[in-house]
Specification:
By secondary structure, the protein is of the alpha/beta class. The chain has helices at residues 51-59, 79-98, 112-122, 153-159, 166-169, 192-208, 225-228, 236-248, and strands at residues 6-7, 15-19, 31-37, 63-68, 100-110, 136-140, 182-187, 214-218. It has one domain (6-248): Rossmann fold, CATH 3.40.50.
Length: 251
């Protein structure tokens, strides 16, 4: 079952849809919830982008919440992290009605969506008030290092053309919260900047913060295909994500 579009905040573009199915795998308890955050270079993307992944998780008995968020030119840093926080707050407030577990919310973001999830995850100070916590996060090809020489127009619009402020805006080197389990995924055929971001984020978490993070390379996949493969005969990404959900959910 798929809900109508629901506003989770007052900003234009703050919309979500809830996907639910028969709760076979979690029949004794409220179901875990997976929040999906699409990519699109901060300039593109809609609720259809992750519809197939949402259908896949709902078919396994999870509650899947598919969200979109304000895009440039109508959005700028750190509105993405604020939108993720607002969506998580909405889920927690409505978990009982959704028949979901508010203590078992996981966030999965890809590309620009993963980038704003990293801001929400590791930099709670960017959110006004108390930033909500989640049970875990999956970051598929995030950008955590900003480089003006290879920035896309969407990145320039989101982070601002004053590139002198970018070091303070990027996630790398500004991590505040490390208590939430994380799985970092990067594709074999990702552009180099995504590989560098994933590797350096993993290093900073493990070496500088002592976090037991996971880093997985999706062999044979390009920048968008790993998440898109969920629910298909290619089970590589799905198996990694499901294993993470199961093990992080026991923490």
């Amino acid at each position: 079952m798929v809900s109508d579009e629901i506003a989770y905040g007052s900003e234009e573009g703050q919309r979500l849809q809830v996907y639910s199915g028969v709760n076979r795998n979690h029949s004794r308890n409220a179901a875990p919830i997976v929040l999906l955050v699409h990519g699109g270079g901060f300039a593109r993307g809609n609720l259809q982008a992750f519809a197939s992944a949402a259908t896949y998780f709902a078919g396994l008995g999870y509650i899947a919440v598919n969200m979109t968020y304000p895009l440039v030119p109508n959005a700028s840093w750190p509105s993405g992290s604020e939108s993720v926080a607002a969506a998580v707050d909405w889920i927690k407030a409505n978990a009982s009605e959704l028949k979901g577990n508010p203590d078992q919310i996981f966030v999965l973001g890809q590309s620009a969506g993963a980038s704003i999830v990293t801001e929400f995850l590791f930099r709670p100070g960017l959110v006004d008030g108390d930033s909500p916590t989640v049970a875990g996060a999956i970051l598929a090809s995030p950008i955590v290092m900003l480089d003006s020489e290879i920035a896309t127009p969407g990145e320039l619009a989101y982070y601002g053309e004053d590139t002198g402020t970018w070091r303070d805006k990027q996630t790398l080197g500004n991590i505040e919260r490390t208590s939430i389990p994380v799985l970092i995924m990067v594709a074999e055929f990702d552009p180099d900047k995504f590989k560098f971001s994933a590797a350096n984020l993993f290093r900073e978490l493990v070496v500088e913060h002592g976090v037991d993070a996971r880093l997985k390379q999706m062999r044979g996949h390009n920048h968008t295909s790993s998440v898109a493969s969920m629910g298909t005969s290619d089970t590589q990404a799905a198996q990694e994500v499901l294993d993470f959900l199961a093990t992080a959910g026991r923490n």
